[in-house]
Amino acid sequence: MTNGHLDIIGRASRLYDEVVAAVLINPRKAGLFTVDERIELLEEVTASYGNVRVDTFSGLLVDYCKANDIPVVVKGLRAVSDFDYELQQAQMNHGLAGVETLFMATNPLFSFLSSSLIKEVAKYGGDVSAHVPEAVRRRLVDRLDTQ
Predict the structure, then answer these.
(1) Is 137 a catalytic residue?
(2) What's residue 29's pLDDT?
(3) What class does this enzyme belong to in the EC scheme (predicted)?
(4) How confident is the model at residue 59 (pLDDT cuts 50, 70, 90)?
(5) Which residue in the list 115, 119, 123, 143 is annotated as catalytic?
(6) Is the pLDDT of residue 147 over 80?
């Protein structure tokens, strides 16, 4: 979770009565943190938003949305390259289940951030404190120190 993710969640929380930050369970992807750890971190950094709920899902996002009566997916866009991919997903999601997608332009302060870039910088001892919530920075540094 970067400050870019948190910015989008915070802005969405001002637009909607409830925001669900959903963590994908993808057994084919080995992340730095387990799903449970990601949930814990997400809950911690979104605790100040009274209307953000953290959940998990596997499979198709639209199936999760349909099962939970979620009509809109909010996506942050950093660059034109994000738009090309996200537009295809949005059109597929709408075609499959009528789920709408709201694109939010990322705050320019965070437009270059990606989780993989943050992990790489932290792995080599770089300071990522300006780019991730403090709880994430601590856990990231601790995890990389043990590897």
Answers:
(1) no
(2) 78
(3) transferase
(4) very high
(5) 115
(6) no
- The yes-or-no answer on residue 115 being catalytic is yes
Tell me the C-alpha distance between 89 and 15, whole Å.
Answer: 22
What is the chain's mean pLDDT, rounded? 94
Given 11, 66, 78, 137, the catalytic residue? 78
Backbone angles phi, psi at 47, to 5 degrees: -60, -30
Report the pLDDT value the prediction gives residue 21, as an integer from 0 to 100. Answer: 97
> Rounded to whole angstroms, how far apart are CA atoms 120 and 143?
13
54 within 8 A of 19, measured Cβ to Cβ: no
**Pair of tokens at residue 63:** 């199936």
- CA–CA gap between residue 114 and residue 111 (Å, rounded): 9
The structure tokens listed for 3 are 């400050």
Question: What is the pLDDT at residue 146?
Answer: 76
**Is 94 part of the annotated catalytic residue set?**
no
Q: Which of 54, 76, 62, 89 is nearest to 8 (CA)?
A: 76
